[in-house]
Design brief:
6-stranded parallel sheet; 10 strands
Length: 309
């Protein structure tokens, strides 16, 4: 069951009551940094602590005003948090949860921005078993191939969807508090189960990234690769943009959502086999029909996307 929580227009005002003293953002890049900037602008976070592995990026975040304090030791600052946002690659989240578990205050809220949810839910259960009432797995549907503190921006979440997948143990008041923070960033909140989330995003996000990476790698491996790249233009650019995304993050996502992604790959491969057969026998009529169906579906989606944007 997929639900939409609240209307953005009326809930932003109500969200002011849901602010906090100290926000800890782990991973101060496009996603975590933009969350921090938006909440600071909305007056929802008095003090933001940025945590990360790279000192240079943390210092840049401090210089740009994305955060107010920096640390490379999550355990050291976790005890001061009213809310922790894990905006790191999914593969790092288990170690991060384990590090902060002994220091978290009982009422501290923990949420994340991971692109997969089934695996992250298991990590919450494994590493934060006494904190589950205050844990809210989440996924903001906003991103680009930019990374690092300099990519953080106000307004990234305006008119964007954020999916929450609360645990059965999560207090409804805590889910609503996290929803209110995202609404203050301009987002529209949807709720799904973790299983629903992973099936949907295997189709519309994870598979396209795999295809883009595989296609660029194929071209790069050709004997005449440089000649091919020399003549690549807007079609190549548009199709391959997401192959510029972070390899570590997308390795983690692909492995984390492996079962759903394997199903989508098999379905896509079957479609390619059908296209190959049409080409082999010169069946232009069926090719045109397939292309037309796809074009119509993409046009409908784009019109809806533009209206909502």
């Amino acid at each position: 069951m997929i639900a939409i929580l609240g209307s953005k227009a009326m809930d932003r005002g109500e969200a002011v009551q849901q602010g906090m003293d100290t926000l800890v953002v782990v991973g101060v890049g496009l996603i975590g940094g933009s969350f921090a900037l938006s909440l600071k602008r909305a007056g929802m976070a008095r003090h933001v602590i940025g945590v990360g592995r790279t000192r240079e990026n943390l210092e840049r975040a401090l210089e740009l005003g994305v955060v107010d304090e920096i640390s490379q030791d999550l355990a050291e600052v976790a005890g001061r948090a009213d809310l922790v946002l894990l905006a790191s690659p999914v593969g790092q989240m288990g170690a991060l949860m384990a590090a902060m578990a002994p220091r978290l205050r009982p009422e501290a809220v923990v949420t994340d921005a991971g692109s997969t949810k089934g695996d992250v839910v298991e990590l919450y259960r494994r590493h934060l078993p006494s904190q589950l009432a205050h844990c809210v797995p989440a996924h903001p549907i906003a991103g680009s191939d930019l990374s690092g503190a300099a990519a953080a921006q106000y307004g990234l979440y305006e008119n964007r969807k954020v999916v929450l997948t609360p645990l059965p143990e999560t207090l409804s008041s805590v889910s609503e508090r996290v929803a209110a923070l995202w609404r203050a960033c301009g987002a529209e909140i949807h709720c799904m189960t973790a299983e629903e989330h992973d099936a949907v995003f295997a189709t519309v996000s994870h598979l396209p990234h795999l295809l883009a990476f595989a296609y660029v790698d194929m071209v790069a491996g050709k004997a005449d690769a440089e000649r091919c790249f020399d003549f690549a233009a807007t079609g190549f650019r548009d199709f391959t943009r997401i192959a510029g995304s972070h390899p570590e993050m997308w390795t983690d996502i692909s492995l984390a959502n492996r079962d759903a992604l394997l199903e989508e790959l098999d379905r896509y491969r079957a479609g390619l086999d059908q296209l190959r057969q049409m080409l082999a026998v010169g069946d232009g009529e069926r090719l045109a029909e397939r292309f037309g169906t796809a074009r119509a579906a993409r046009t409908r989606w784009h019109q809806q996307f533009m209206r909502k944007g």
